[in-house]
Each structure stands twice: as C-alpha cells, then as structure tokens.
Specification:
With 231 residues, the chain is of the alpha/beta class. The protein contains four helices and 13 strands.
Length: 231
C-alpha cells in the first residue's frame, strides 16, 4: 500500500486495486491512477476537512464514489455526482462487492470512517479525538474522555493496516491522548498523525513519552506535504 500525505488531515491511500482520498480540501494531489476506482471520503463539513474541490477531483472520472458525512449539505453535491454519492450517519454501513465503509460518531462534528477494501483495513478518524483542553471546565473534559473512549470501544479487537489519527499540538500536554487511547483499545500496524497544524515534530514528541513504548515504532514521521510511504 502507498500512502501520501497531502495537507492537514488529507491523505491518498493506494491499494493494489483501489485509491482512497480522505478529507481533501486543498493541497497538491499526487497522480491518481485512472485505471483504479477512486473512493473519496469527507468526515464532516468543517472547512479544514471538506471543500467542493473534491467534486472537481471526481468530475468526469469513471469508477468514482463519494462517502460524505451526514452533516454536509446534500445540495452541495453537483447533480451529475449525486448518483455516486453516499451520505453516512454514525452507525451506518455501506457495502458492495468492492468496499465496506462504516461510520462512527465524532466527538466534534460528523463521523470517522473504517474502510475495508482490497483486503486492507483503513481508519480515518476525522475529528473523532480525545479533545482534552487545558483550561477547559473539568466536567467538559471528563465527559469528553468518556465519549471518546466509548466510541472507540466499538472498534475494540480490530487492527487497522493504516490509521489516520489526530495529534493536535493545541491540546498542550494532552496532545497524545487520542492516539494513546486508540492504540490501547483498538490497534494499527501503521499510524499517521494528522491535524497537527504544520508542527511536523509531533510524532517525535509522542515517541519520547513512556506511554508510547508499545507502539512508537508504528508511528510514522511526516516531514513534508507530498511525502509518500510504502507499506
């Protein structure tokens, strides 16, 4: 599998017989093979996760399907793409002979996606994260902890081949909680940090923490936009 970091939380994953584009809103796209089906995912309506640029990517392309979160307005989808667009709410599953896409409830807006395709398992968290903010009301943070852990508990026992997970430095000392909880409750063979606002050293920071001892070798260190990884 080839994974290319585009920008912020946007990635292109290319398997043996499919391409998956997650949360693209801007940035330079790598070449997408024309002979493979393209699946486009948008986890929610926030402007740093979705823009109508995805419709430009899909336009005129054969074998394209879009999976959009329920909070994105249906009227934003061009008429010619409506037949190949699926809106998913938390708990909903789309499945055909090629792909299975499951939606989980975000702790912010929209959904997270668990995708099974080409014999691979991919997880893109969107804004489903352990948003524990310094200075926030204690009850709010406690409720957030419970909500996040309850949602990822639904994935317990699974292993993603690739997981795209928020590692947001704005959370201060708590920046690592989302990934740490996920890796202890679920699992992933390779973890790509995202939503790190240009602070490319976040993976290195997490690797230095004792809690990452069981998974630090699986944390991918992204250094620049357009960087590709062969897994």
């Amino acid at each position: 599998m080839k994974v290319t970091y585009i920008h912020h939380s946007a990635f292109l994953a290319e398997t043996e017989d499919a391409c998956l584009l997650f949360d693209y809103f801007r940035g330079t796209l790598p070449e997408i093979p024309a002979d493979k089906p393209l699946y486009i995912f948008a986890s929610h309506c926030h402007s740093d996760h979705f823009s109508e640029a995805v419709f430009d990517v899909a336009a005129g392309r054969e074998g394209v399907r879009l999976f959009l979160s329920y909070d994105i307005w249906k009227k934003r989808v061009p008429r010619e793409l409506q037949r190949c667009t699926t809106f998913l709410e938390p708990g909903e599953v789309y499945e055909d002979s090629h792909i299975k896409a499951e939606a989980f409830r975000s702790t912010d807006e929209g959904v997270a996606f668990w995708v099974s395709v080409s014999g691979k398992e991919l997880y893109h968290a969107g804004d489903l994260n352990h948003w524990y903010w310094e200075g926030e009301d204690e009850k709010w943070n406690t409720d957030m902890t419970a909500a996040y852990r309850a949602e990822i508990q639904k994935m317990e026992g699974r292993t993603a081949d690739v997981a795209f997970l928020a590692l947001d430095p704005r959370l201060g000392q708590y920046f690592y909680l989302g990934i740490d909880d996920f890796m202890k409750a679920v699992d992933a063979k390779a973890v790509f940090p995202m939503h790190f606002w240009g602070e490319y050293d976040v993976a290195k920071r997490l690797k230095k923490l004792p809690c990452s001892g069981g998974y630090r070798e699986r944390l991918m260190e992204i250094e620049y936009e357009g960087q590709s990884f062969l897994l």
